[in-house]
């Protein structure tokens, strides 16, 4: 909902502006040191490079929302 409101606001200003919402699970950074996933096969701790690569891909393809890992699309 918020993404569509923000996207509509930007479209009013310029047709060349796009919005991508990125919703990652835990990322392997110092902020999450010691965090363990209860289901590492389904919800792994994500690498910084993986999240960065998927985020860049989503931005370049004007994807509206990116949920990581992919399992999050089913929940």
What does this structure look like?
The protein has a two-stranded parallel sheet with strand order 1-2. The chain is of the alpha+beta class and 75 residues long. The chain is built from two helices and two strands. The radius of gyration is 15 Å and the shape is elongated.
Task: Show the helix and strand layout.
Elements: H1 2-13, E1 21-24, H2 48-60, E2 65-68
Task: Tell me the number of strands.
Answer: 2
- Continuous helix count: 2
How much helicity do the residues have? 25-40%
Percent strand: 5-15%
Q: Characterize the overall form.
A: elongated
Mean pLDDT: 85
Radius of gyration, CA atoms, in whole angstroms? 15 Å
Q: Pairing-aware structural class of the strands and helices? A: alpha+beta
Give the termini distance in whole angstroms. 17 Å
Major sheet: size, sense and barrel closure? Answer: 2 strands, parallel
* Low-pLDDT sequence parts: none
Sheet with the most strands: spatial strand order: 1-2
Oligomer: single chain
């Amino acid at each position: 909902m918020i993404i569509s409101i923000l996207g509509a606001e930007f479209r009013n200003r310029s047709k060349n502006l796009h919005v991508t919402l990125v919703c990652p699970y835990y990322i392997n950074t110092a902020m999450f040191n010691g965090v363990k996933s209860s289901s590492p096969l389904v919800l792994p701790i994500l690498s910084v490079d993986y999240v960065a690569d998927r985020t860049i891909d989503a931005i370049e393809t004007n994807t509206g929302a990116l949920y990581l890992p992919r399992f999050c699309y089913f929940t």
